[in-house]
Amino acid sequence: MILGIGIDLIEIERIERAAAKPSFLSSVFTQNEIAEFERRGRNFAILAGTFAGKEAVVKALGTGFRGFRPNSVEILRDELGKPKAVLYGTPKEIADNLGIQKWHITLTNTADTAAAFVIAEKYDQ
């Protein structure tokens, strides 16, 4: 059963400008996300996609970033590049209380924008 959906679209240049401030990176992204960004040649499309993924996840939760920081939601990619969400603290508690068991995430970008679409799923019992 689908419990929530979320979508986000962001300009890559906006993330690139914000990332010029070291405090932005550390307050918004996890060490794993920053490492992925560095490993991929500081590709700002990757960072923007990660940010869009975070936004889409909290929209699927129905909360936005109320009561927790963006780095409480982590968007990682497996060895094939498939995105996945890992939640910590308050967003994890919210997801657990809602019964969310699986996140379906897709990320994409053009030269100028990055987008994410998320479905939060609970398995039928």
Strand order of the largest sheet: 1-5-4
Task: Kindly name the structural category.
Answer: alpha+beta
Radius of gyration: 14 Å
Calculate the terminal CA-CA distance, rounded to whole Å: 10 Å
Question: Could you list the spans in which at least 5 consecutive residues all have pLDDT below 50?
Answer: none
Essential attributes:
globular, two-stranded antiparallel ribbon, 5 strands, alpha+beta
How would you sum up this structure in a few lines?
This protein is an alpha+beta fold and 125 residues long. The protein has 5 helices and 5 strands; from the N terminus they run βααααββαββ.
SSE diagram, text form:
Layout: E1 2-11, H1 12-18, H2 22-28, H3 31-39, H4 44-61, E2 73-77, E3 83-87, H5 89-98, E4 102-109, E5 113-121
Antiparallel strand pairs: 1-5, 2-3, 4-5
Helix pairs in contact: 1-4, 3-4
Characterise the protein shown here.
The structure is a single chain. This protein is an alpha+beta fold and 125 residues long. It is built from 5 helices and 5 strands. The strands form 2 sheets. Strands 1-5-4 form a 3-stranded antiparallel β-sheet. The protein has a two-stranded antiparallel sheet with strand order 2-3. The termini are close together. The model has no long low-confidence stretch (mean pLDDT 95).
